[in-house]
Design goal:
The chain folds into two domains: 104 residues, Glycoprotein, Type 4 Pilin (2-Layer Sandwich); 73 residues, Dna Ligase, domain 1 (2-Layer Sandwich). Helices cover 28% and strands 22% of the residues. Strand 5 and strand 6 form a beta hairpin. Helix 1 crosses helix 2. The longest helix has 19 residues.
Length: 198
């Protein structure tokens, strides 16, 4: 993958361990139970290193059902996945909380992020030129307001103009703000994996 994560890519077993933990956390949250304990014997030692993740849930029709995460690492990867899996199920304001009967039909995707890097640019045209569709996740910041799209969003919004305009809307700003004002822009890459890939 891009952005220097190649040497640190998770193994198939480590991915399976995180997906299993995410599903257990979602089941517990939907049933109003405490989160599953994390037993170090059940996880690779690497998964206790700091990591930033987003957990995305899709319903049985493949539609988005929840997505929550962190842009920067502040806790061990296993704890980050457990916390964001439960939050994606219960706390994404765009959706009602996941009901217990929905859990079996959910498909879980985990995105592990590289640290965000500032993207230097002078003009809107240069910003467009420097973005790498399909590779870069993008963070826009305007003072205290910020919003991000994971690299996967390029699949739905492949045109950079549209991508940035929708990201401005997500931030609560006018769609053309990125063309009228020089915003802070950061990019990152992800290692993405989901249930049912192997």
């Amino acid at each position: 993958m891009e952005g220097g994560m190649e040497e640190q890519t998770l193994t198939r077993e480590e991915r399976a361990q995180l997906l299993r933990l995410a599903r257990q956390a979602i089941e517990a949250a939907a049933n109003r139970r405490p989160p599953p304990p994390i037993d170090p014997a059940e996880f690779s030692p690497r998964l206790f290193e700091p990591g930033a993740t987003f957990v995305t849930l899709y319903d049985e029709n493949g539609d988005l059902r929840g997505c929550i995460g962190a842009l920067e690492a502040y806790q061990p990867l296993v704890e980050d996945v457990r916390e964001h899996a439960a939050a994606a199920a219960m706390l994404d304001y765009r959706f009602p909380p996941v009901r217990p009967e929905e859990v079996p039909g959910l498909r879980i995707e985990i995105s592990r992020l590289t640290p965000p890097q500032p993207l230097e640019y002078q003009t809107p045209a240069e910003l467009i030129e420097r973005l790498r569709p399909g590779i870069d996740g993008v963070i826009l910041r305007d003072g205290p307001q910020r919003a991000t799209f994971l690299p996967q969003v390029w699949q739905k919004l492949p045109d950079p103009y549209e991508f940035l305009s929708h990201l401005c809307l997500k931030m609560g700003a006018p769609a053309n703000l990125w063309q009228r004002k020089k915003l802070q822009v950061f990019t990152y890459q992800v290692e993405e994996f989901k249930e049912g890939e192997d």
